[in-house]
């Protein structure tokens, strides 16, 4: 087995710098980094003529080398390569799939060579000089077969998790209907009438790191942005600041972001568990239920995440041009919600908890599959 620089294994073609004036509604799609990462799947199109080598076909190997460092097998339509992305043309003695895995393995080293304080990128010289192990072609194919099987298991585990996650909103709509039309005719009530209080904390200047076990932390907005609770997303509270114990996050609470971007304002989450010593920031509300005879917290959380109800929440937000939308306590209290019988809400909550248990088992299985894949990658490329 020999060591080769990446630049010796393939030709790396950088994309073109398309300007907004090149964009239109016709022509070929421009493949940008956000189209690779899934953070922005909408394409810009162009009729601009470019070199044939900048045309990307399904199955081509692409490397994003700025802002996001990763390697992709292009699974989209025929398109044109944007700047900050390399199209990879492996040499005849290099199996393309082997190079894909080798590039994945090399990312740690490539990441250590990133430049730029805001827009991270890899210098081409550093990139192409990175050394990888290159066995004979037959051995490459044998390695690809093993790694592809392991990668396939990880992918199947992730797909199963995704399908399980989709069960909860499906069960909600089956049991209660879409709140936009309320087809089952549930009585409605103002949210404020069913709550004891709407509380929020403070956002003092915190450390950027996570807290230590003996410290307190303050939640980041991103802790609930995906409408699920992620306690790991917090900042450590400086030890000289006394924590406000009245806004410590507790298991069983429903949280809601009062201020964020238009897409994320009004995101809510249910606190399934907490390690303790975590405080609310001023941008997250705690919805304390007052009438437990009419409202179950898990039902309330899921109701607030249904797309039609999220859209209603957005209409409650106000803000001047250029500022983030903000939902006031007063306006949030006016939100009308559907109130099915408590017994039905409790049955829904039980179903959600059962699905959560399945998700936990799936997560453990996925982690095991990922660990196996990572171990194989280390064995091959280290």
| Through-space gap between termini | 12 Å
Which structural category fits the helices and strands? alpha+beta
Instruction: Kindly report the average pLDDT value.
Output: 93
Query: Uncertain segments of ≥5 residues (pLDDT<50)?
Result: none
The count of DSSP E runs of length 2 or more, i.e. the number of strands, is 22
InterPro entries: Restrct_endonuc_typeI_TRD, Restrct_endonuc_typeI_TRD_sf, Type-I_RS_S_subunit
Keywords: DNA-binding, Endonuclease, Hydrolase, Nuclease, Restriction system
Family: Belongs to the type-I restriction system S methylase family.
Pfam family, one: Methylase_S
How would you characterize the overall build of this protein?
The protein is α+β, with helices and mostly antiparallel strands and 382 residues long. The chain folds into 2 domains: 133 residues, DNA methylase specificity domains (Adenine-n6-DNA-methyltransferase TaqI, Chain A, domain 2, Alpha-Beta Complex); 153 residues, Adenine-n6-DNA-methyltransferase TaqI, Chain A, domain 2 (Alpha-Beta Complex). The chain is built from 10 helices and 22 strands. The strands form 7 sheets. A 5-stranded mixed beta sheet has the order 3-5-4-9-6. The protein has a 4-stranded antiparallel beta sheet with strand order 2-10-7-8. Strand 11 and strand 12 form a beta hairpin. Helix 5 runs antiparallel to helix 10. The longest helix has 40 residues. The protein is elongated and about 70 Å long. 28% of the residues are buried. It comes from Sulfuricella denitrificans (strain DSM 22764 / NBRC 105220 / skB26). Belongs to the type-I restriction system S methylase family. Keywords: DNA-binding, Endonuclease, Hydrolase, Nuclease, Restriction system. One of its GO terms (molecular function) is endonuclease activity. This is Restriction endonuclease S subunit.
């Amino acid at each position: 087995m020999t060591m080769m620089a990446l630049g010796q294994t393939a030709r790396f073609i950088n994309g073109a710098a398309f300007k907004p004036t090149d964009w239109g509604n016709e022509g070929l799609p421009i493949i940008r980094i956000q189209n690779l990462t899934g953070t922005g799947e909408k394409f810009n199109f162009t009729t601009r003529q470019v070199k044939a080598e900048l045309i990307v076909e399904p199955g081509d190997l692409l490397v994003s080398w700025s802002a996001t460092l990763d390697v992709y097998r292009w699974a989209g339509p025929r398109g044109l390569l944007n700047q900050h992305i390399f199209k990879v043309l492996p040499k005849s003695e290099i199996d393309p799939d082997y190079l894909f895995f080798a590039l994945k393995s090399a990312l740690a080293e490539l990441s250590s060579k990133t430049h730029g304080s805001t827009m991270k990128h890899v210098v081409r010289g550093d990139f192409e000089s990175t050394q990888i192990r290159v066995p004979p072609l037959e051995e490459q194919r044998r390695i690809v077969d093993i790694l592809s099987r392991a990668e396939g298991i990880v992918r199947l585990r992730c797909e199963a998790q995704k399908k399980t996650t989709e069960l909860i909103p499906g069960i909600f709509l089956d049991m209660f209907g879409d709140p936009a039309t309320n087809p089952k005719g549930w009585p409605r009530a103002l949210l404020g009438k069913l709550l004891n209080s709407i509380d929020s904390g403070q956002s003092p200047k915190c450390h950027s790191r996570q807290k230590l076990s003996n410290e307190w932390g303050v939640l980041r907005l991103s802790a609930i942005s995906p409408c699920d609770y992620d306690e790991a997303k917090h900042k450590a509270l400086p030890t000289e600041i006394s924590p406000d114990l009245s806004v410590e996050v507790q298991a069983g609470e429903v949280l809601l972001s009062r201020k964020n971007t238009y897409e994320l304002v009004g995101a809510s989450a249910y606190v399934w568990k907490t390690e303790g010593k975590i405080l609310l920031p001023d941008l997250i509300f705690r919805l304390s239920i007052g009438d437990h005879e009419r409202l179950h917290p898990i039902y309330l959380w899921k109701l607030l995440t249904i797309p039609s109800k999220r859209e209603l929440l957005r209409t409650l937000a106000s803000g001047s041009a250029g500022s983030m939308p903000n939902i006031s306590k007063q306006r949030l209290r006016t939100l009308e919600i559907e109130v099915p019988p408590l017994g039905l809400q409790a049955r829904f909550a039980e179903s959600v908890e059962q699905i959560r248990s399945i998700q936990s088992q799936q997560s453990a299985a996925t982690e095991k599959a990922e660990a196996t894949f990572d171990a194989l990658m280390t064995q091959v490329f280290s």
